[in-house]
Amino acid sequence: MTDVKKRFQQIHHEISTSVSAAKRDPQSVQLLAVSKTWPADALREVAALGQRQFGENYLQEALDKIDALADLDLEWHFIGPIQSNKTRDIAGHFDWVQSVDREKIARRLNEHRPDSLAPLNVCIQINIDEEETKSGTSPEKLLTLADYIATLDKLNLRGLMVIPSLKNSVADEKDSFSRAYELFQQLRHKYPQVDTLSMGMTADMSTAIACGSTMVRIGTALFGQREKR
Ligand SMILES: *Cc1c(COP(=O)(O)O)cnc(C)c1O
Fold first, then answer.
1. Can you tell me which family this protein belongs to (predicted)?
2. Domain 3-223, CATH homologous superfamily name and number
3. 203 C-alpha to center of ligand 1: Å?
4. pLDDT tens string for the chain (229 positions)?
5. What global pTM score does this model have?
6. Ligand 1 centre distance from Cα of residue 180 (Å)
7. Ligand 1 neighbourhood includes 7 CB (under 6 angstroms)
8. Among candidates 120, 127, 135, which has minimal Cα distance to 90?
9. Domain map of the chain by residue range?
10. Cα dihedral sign for 88, 62, 13, 164?
11. Are 11 and 19 spatial neighbours (Cβ–Cβ below 8 Å)?
């Protein structure tokens, strides 16, 4: 068995263990393969194992891979910070954008989404621990931004994405994840199409699933350690 196949199976094992420990439906957590910095061939290998959803952070690198893998039926998620001059390329080439954090970006993605494509699925990124250096909207502004996105016909509001601050204990991780879950419930109450709570990475996926994540974004555990960029 290849290393990638072993790691892929290990991740699925961890997801199903965490899902059953939390007494949740096994289908309720999806795996997003976070492939930033890895070449198209590495993604192709993972796709051959049955993985369809890939997450990318850097636009130019992502566009090259989307092009190189156009023969596969993949679903592309943009998960990095968004500069407003990049919205045209993002809206034209991705299926999901998980890092929408302000009205201007939402408006531009809506303007630039081609009519030939289905509405763009979006998650609002929440700065759950209100860190100065992190992107994401503050929890208080969530509903205002959601209300705005709901008026845009080429965006489909699907949920929330969070990247908590680094924590020293599982209890502290749970605190952030639980606050995110609370916001997710509020959002879902107002917008019933909302079904995605994107939280959990290599280091904290089990805790995220215990706290209600519906999508874990996994890079290192799947592809290996990234080179510093
Ligand atoms: C890089 C990245 C990940 C994956 O992190 P790992 O620790 O490698 O699993 C997940 N989400 C976002 C937003 C990222 O930038």
1. Belongs to the pyridoxal phosphate-binding protein YggS/PROSC family.
2. Alanine racemase (3.20.20.10)
3. 10
4. 789 999 999 999 999 999 999 999 999 999 999 999 999 999 999 999 999 999 999 999 999 999 999 999 999 999 999 999 999 999 999 999 999 999 999 999 999 999 999 999 999 999 999 999 899 999 999 999 999 999 999 999 999 999 999 999 999 999 999 999 999 999 999 999 999 999 999 999 999 999 999 999 999 999 999 987 6
5. 0.97
6. 17
7. no
8. 120
9. 3-223
10. negative
11. no
Q: Is 139 in the pocket of ligand 1 (CB under 6 A)?
A: no
Write the residue with the smallest CA distance to atom 11 of ligand 1. Answer: 217
At 69, list the tokens: 């893998």
CA of 228 relative to ligand 1 center, distance in Å: 13
What is the torsion angle, in degrees rounded to the nearest 10, for the CA atoms of residue 166, residue 149, residue 32 and residue 180? 40
Q: Residue 192: CB partners within 8 Å, gap ≥ 6?
A: none
DSSP tag of 168: S
Nearest ligand 1 atom, CA 36: 1
Which tokens sit at 40? Answer: 């198209």
How close is the Cα of 116 to the center of ligand 1, in Å? 31
The alpha carbon of 201 and the centre of ligand 1 are apart by a number of angstroms equal to 6
In the block, tokens 């489909």 appear at 156
